[in-house]
Amino acid sequence: MRERVLRLSAEAGLDAERDALERVFGGESDSRLLFWRPLEQALVMPRRLGRLAGFAEAEARCRELGWPIALRDTGGEPVPQSPAVLNVALSYAVPVADNEQTRIDTAYQRLCQPLCDWLAALGLEAGLGEVEGAFCDGRYNVNIGGRKLVGTAQRWRRRARDGRYVVLAHGAILMENQRAAMADVVNAFYRACDLPADIRAESHIALDERHSQPWAQVEALAAHFQHHLASQGLELPPL
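== BPL/LPL catalytic domain-containing protein ==
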């Protein structure tokens, strides 16, 4: 039986997400769903931040703290990755008729609704929205009790052969409590780049603070994705 959660380095995990997007973009698959967990710590951020004036100093400082930097293709801000995190990557093509805002909002809903349903089944009330003091904050955070549990991001490409857009929607779930170290390294990066640093550990929450066996729930999460996406007319290959 194939392992549900791939154990990969941060760089290899980012490559696996790119591969999922490429398979859908190239027509090899209509959709892909990937679960992966980092083998080690890294601070992952958009490539554009590599152009900051203080980036070299920031990179050295993060490495000293045990969080080497890895660059990703999606937008947003720095996000700590470690064995405490479960990554979910969903890729599929959308109809040509969908306008930009519709396809963006739909992609976030298709990513976030199964997560919220999963948490509800665990007896946890989840919501979406921004959280002051959270790293890579956004209105499609998945939160518990007003604290961020899951960060989300997207990347889009357009196929020339049929004009359809293909999305990679990504969620990073904090499964184990590493909030303090994560907030510290993001703040260290910002300070080295002479940027405001106000990331707070208490703005986040880990699933193991609300459930004793978070990793045992991944199979159920996969089932929620299968069910929700099928109801949207999006069939996933066997996981």
